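User: Some background: our group keeps a shared notebook of sequences we're curious about, and every so often someone picks one and asks for a predicted structure to add to the entry. Today it's my turn. The entry only has the sequence so far, pasted here. Could you supply the structure so I can complete it?
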Amino acid sequence: MLAGAAERGMRAGLVECFVFIAKQAWACVFGALLLAVILAARLWYPEDAAIARNDFLTLSAVALQIGMLVFRLESGRELWVIMMFHIVGTGMELFKTDVGSWAYEAEGILRIGAVPLFSGFMYAAVGSYMVRVFRMFDLRFTRFPPVWVTTIVAVGIYLNFFSHHYIVDLRWLLLGAVVLIWGQTVMHFRVWKRVLRAPQLVIFAGVALFIWIAENLATWGGAWLYPNQADGWEPVSGQKIVSWFLLMIISVVMVTWVYPPRPPERVPRAAEPPPTTRPGT
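Assistant: Of course. Here's the predicted structure to add to the notebook entry:
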């Protein structure tokens, strides 16, 4: 279909939009399948099943991850990034559930303390999306800050997720640091035949909003509950978008450890014609 598509005009623009949406959907395949399993388990999982629902979700997540590797949707190199997301996410889950930020149903045996093992796969879904987007859209960056600077900010953001329970919350200071550091960064991404660009912070905000929407679906599906949802489901607070925005910083930084940010390719100038010489000279 793409081989015969127009290269100019409105139809060409519609094709680019279609390819963009298709690539985004394909990049989200692991997270979308995991969310579908969570919702299906909420609607149809039998109460008298031989295994607990949380264990079923964990086994399903493992099967999905194996499928991603078997069908070569992810490489071994990308798996390392996803495993880092597992470790970072599980560490946060253990702490946050202990202080009562959110809670899971106390069922099943595939868990660490009060945290079912499938929770780490939800963070892995973000990692899977990030690494696939980097590859599928051939992401390039203009004025991307040094990786060592971004690493310091990412570590500060991660530590603040823990420390704000005991000392002053520095998220707004960290948010200001993010705006200062990434404020001039531009992302270049290839859709099909066109290379588009957008401010990096706008991309971060869009992804954070998308994850917040998925979070609402996941909490409705009973994957976990916030304290205000204990007596009945209600939408997740919009303040969580800021938390997801900051988590995007951690995500991008971890991906850049494996895929160093590259500048956009420069189009070579046309070669100048050789100088004209007169006969006999």
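Suggested note for the entry: The radius of gyration is 23 Å. The first strand starts at residue 111 and ends at 112.
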